[in-house]
Amino acid sequence: MQQNYLETTRDIYKEAAENPQVGLCCTTTPVWQLPGLSIPKKMLEMNYGCGSTVHSRDLVNNPKVLYVGVGGGMELLQFAYFSRQTGGVTGVDVVDEMLQVCSENFKDAEKQNPWFRSEFVNLIKGDALHLPIADNSIDVAAQNCLFNIFKHEDLKKALQEMYRVLKPHGRLVLSDPTCEQEMPKTLKEDSRLRALCLSGSLPLKEYIKMITDVGFGTVEVRAKRPYRILDPLQYDTDTLLFIESVEVCALKDPMPADGPCVFTGKTAIYFGGGDNFNDEKGHVLLPNQPLALCDKTAAALNALGRADLFISESTWFYDGGGCC
Ligand SMILES: C[S@@+](CC[C@H](N)C(=O)[O-])C[C@H]1O[C@@H](n2cnc3c(N)ncnc32)[C@H](O)[C@@H]1O
Q1: Nearest C-alpha to atom 3 of ligand 1 is from which residue?
Q2: CA–CA separation, 60 and 39 (whole Å)
Q3: Helices (H) and strands (E) in the chain, counts
Q4: Percent of the chain at pLDDT above 70?
Q5: Which of 26, 66, 77, 311 is the most exposed place for a label (fewest CB within 10 A)?
Q6: Ligand 1, CB within 6 Å, residue ranges
Q7: What angle do CA 317, 293, 165 make, to 5 degrees?
């Protein structure tokens, strides 16, 4: 009987645990350098992510962190760097061999980092589609380069699971490939390419819609960068496919009546002669002081057609302090 793509995925990551494959998924994104943090060589070789989910501003006030799809444990170590408490970080993975290697890597990390103890991270066997985690118990839930593998219904389930376990206002931090071109069906259906994070990517707008459809009221696009090319000589495609990788944070905020607030890095600058510009909807812009806008507010301000208001395009870089 033919394997389904989830079984193929487990096999591929069993193999990637037993024989580390440098560059399996990762981009050239520099690895976080933090004072007193030393990442073991094997963990670096097993960096199977496509961006970073560790952002210091998510990690104030001793958050309970959940990380799904542990890989070699590098991001778990980085989260533990900030939380430094027994069981402060929980890692879930469906592949026994990956959990085993990850825990061995933590032993190496202990030798290289006097502040680190393996007990800071609680490793649990479990599936992203049925998380063995209580409802409303997590402050920051992260996944890096796993959810893009899932097909539509499984992705929906994985996002619903993250939503379920997060506390109100908790944060889901994701890093995944996205692709604005239509991925050919043969590539989408190729279990191996999907598992290797090469052919499951959605256009960013669709990816964000899946996130907001499960209830996240605020979404921030924090970074977007080139990831891979699938070319007609090596893959079953007529055109060159350009894949990017994104870092997105979704907040379990209540859904606003007029739809989610999605920040894609748009900014307004008022440059008129008045003391300020006030849209009477809660947005006051002082002259020449940029204000980050969600796409909804940007569209509403654009629709005013004012000559003294500049509204930027999406920069795909948003780091807080916005309009809503
Ligand atoms: C592409 S790797 C990413 C690893 C890690 N996040 C990183 O950035 O290095 C995918 C990870 O997800 C795990 N995985 C695969 N299917 C899973 C599932 N259904 N539930 C939980 N983990 C899964 C794999 O064992 C592997 O550790």
Answers
A1: 48
A2: 22
A3: 9, 13
A4: 98
A5: 311
A6: 9-10, 13, 25, 47-49, 68-71, 75, 92-95, 98, 127-129, 144-146, 197
A7: 70
